[in-house]
Amino acid sequence: MISVQQIHKKFGKLEVLKDFNLEFEAGNSYALMGPNGSGKTTLIKIILGMVIPNAGDVLVQGEAINGSYAYRSKIGYMPQIGRYPENIKIGQVFSMMQDIRPEIKAYDLELVNDFGLNEMLDKPMHTLSGGTRQKVSAALAFMFQPDILILDEPTAGLDPIAVELLKNKIKREREKGKLIIITSHILSELEELTNHAIYIFEGDVFFNDTVDSLKEITGENRFSTAIARLMEWSLKKNTKKTEMSHA
Ligand SMILES: Nc1ncnc2c1ncn2[C@@H]1O[C@H](COP(=O)(O)OP(=O)(O)OP(=O)(O)O)[C@@H](O)[C@H]1O
Q1: Which domain holds residue 151?
Q2: Closest CA to ligand 1's atom 24
Q3: Start and end of every ABC transporter domain (predicted)?
Q4: ipTM of the predicted structure?
């Protein structure tokens, strides 16, 4: 459904993604993991056409995204930090987004209602708390019933009730066969919501397989300990590289 082919991305001298290849299939939910600064958000932004790679292609449902924006309506994106025009009201943000996508007539307003945003439509964006802003971002990601959901640290800043509401929503969408990609540092959350693990390290895909295989390969039954094992292995590989370069 999304094919990332030989993507290379540098910011100045910093090589963030080196010859990156990944396939994301419908019906699967992917945990995109890696240390801070490993390139998770950069990869997401490349898929969304918000960052242009130095080389490589991204195909969404078989079509290269190069320069096209139509494909974006298939993707619901929840950014790590949502940025909105500050002087407009929540309701205006929703109607503005609906105007941008006139081809979509049926809206999914479950999260708007679950989060109680329908009672705050007149609140200006600049008056919102960080968590309420996150709720607006979540509601928008699901509003247009996209086939693909990309959620960058979706529960960061949400209160425990909102976290449960959002997690349940993600699970319901997954059951409908959608493709879901989630980045998070909260391993318990990834364990609950995903069936496929991708671990990025130093610009490369260090691990890319099902959560079941991850547990089998690491010999660990729990997701969090399996990931801890992967992290250890990635750091050891790195130490070996440094030792070799000093030899
Ligand atoms: N526009 C930019 N200009 C220069 N460097 C950038 C830019 N965007 C990202 N970077 C750098 O690229 C690297 C990868 O950043 P990215 O945000 O993709 O990491 P991440 O894996 O999402 O991190 P985190 O877990 O902290 O959210 C970082 O070193 C970051 O400083």
Answers
A1: 2-245
A2: 36
A3: 2-227
A4: 0.97
